[in-house]
Amino acid sequence: MKIALLGYGRMGKTIEEIAENRGHEIVLKVSDGIENYDLTKADVAIDFSVPDAAFKNITICFKAGVPVVSGTTGWLDDYEKATKICSEENSAFIYASNFSLGVNVFFELNRKLAGMMQGLEDYSIEIEEIHHTKKLDAPSGTAISLAEQIIHENKQLKGWQLDSADENKIPIHAKRIKDVPGTHVVSYDSNIDTIEIKHTAKSRQGFALGAVVAAEYLQDKTGIYSMKDVLADLFKN
Ligand SMILES: NC(=O)C1=CN([C@@H]2O[C@H](COP(=O)(O)OP(=O)(O)OC[C@H]3O[C@@H](n4cnc5c(N)ncnc54)[C@H](OP(=O)(O)O)[C@@H]3O)[C@@H](O)[C@H]2O)C=CC1
Ligand SMILES: O=C(O)C1=N[C@H](C(=O)O)C[C@H](O)C1
């Protein structure tokens, strides 16, 4: 598979290493300031760039008929527009706030736990995310996904907010500590006890592997997919 990398920073470089180890070739690297790039050699594009650039680069790929895997966070106000352009151009797209296979298992645990806890009014929920100090967005895309999954299960909750003091909104606490790849904790606290689930990434390898596996899944398809589709395909046997 010939891959275009949209963004060649910490994630772009980790994806390059994993993709090459799986026998793929990087045919294009797009960084800040690179315009009018040539996508003709690419079978698929993998976008791990910056919030301000993601939508533009993703839609350039759709218009060139190149499927896109995107992991960039902080641009999702434009997600519906992107999927509309993808459909109009008969292209293919997977977005995930977190491509790690472990986090996608953690998402399932989170949904299940939220369903079990939704009638138990003595517990208050909060989410904590910890990332490296170079991260541009807060809260993390993964923390937002966790909050949306809980809200879907618990209709009493009216949304999420950074450090919220409103009992109807899930407070998300974002901490920035040097070199932390990504840690997420969901906790339910009462006067009697605390229940916590936690995912700790030890490096960026898991995010990058998941993105390459998603690209392998997407390369010959059209349509909009999610990591649930990728995982179902991976574990179908
Ligand atoms: N979904 C997931 O599983 C994960 C998502 N992420 C997300 O991925 C994104 C990238 O993370 P990370 O690699 O750590 O960030 P980096 O800052 O290390 O890399 C960002 C890259 O984007 C490039 N860039 C800037 N402007 C443009 C542009 N206009 N077009 C193309 N590329 C551009 C930068 O180029 P330059 O160096 O020239 O400025 C840099 O190479 C973030 O949004 C992060 O939240 C991260 C890990 C996992
Ligand atoms: O910026 C990062 O590094 C990460 N970003 C993603 C997010 O915002 O959730 C995923 C991962 O936690 C690392």
In short:
By secondary structure, the chain is α/β, with parallel strands linked by helices. 37% of the residues lie in helices and 25% in strands.
Give me some keywords for this one.
237 residues; alpha/beta; Dihydrodipicolinate Reductase, domain 2; 6-stranded parallel β-sheet; 5-stranded mixed β-sheet; elongated; binds NADPH dihydro-nicotinamide-adenine-dinucleotide phosphate; binds the ligand O=C(O)C1=N[C@H](C(=O)O)C[C@H](O)C1
**Might you state the CATH topology name of the largest domain?**
Rossmann fold
Q: How helix-rich are the residues, as a percent range?
A: 25-40%
Q: What share of the residues does DSSP label as strand, in percent? A: 15-25%
* Lateral strand order in the biggest sheet: 2-1-3-4-5-11
CATH architecture of the largest domain: 3-Layer(aba) Sandwich
Low-confidence runs: none
Structural class: alpha/beta
Number of self-contained structural domains = 2
Mean model confidence by pLDDT: 97
Tally of alpha and pi helices: 7
The number of strands is 11
C-alpha Rg (nearest Å): 18 Å
What does this protein look like?
This protein has 237 residues and is an alpha/beta fold. The protein has two domains: 130 residues, 3-Layer(aba) Sandwich (Rossmann fold), CATH 3.40.50; 100 residues, Dihydrodipicolinate Reductase, domain 2. Helices cover 37% and strands 25% of the residues. The strands form two sheets. A six-stranded parallel beta sheet has the order 2-1-3-4-5-11, sandwiched between helices. Strands 7-8-6-9-10 form a five-stranded mixed beta sheet, covered by helices on one side. α2 runs parallel beside α3. The two termini are 23 Å apart. NADPH dihydro-nicotinamide-adenine-dinucleotide phosphate binds next to α1 and α2.
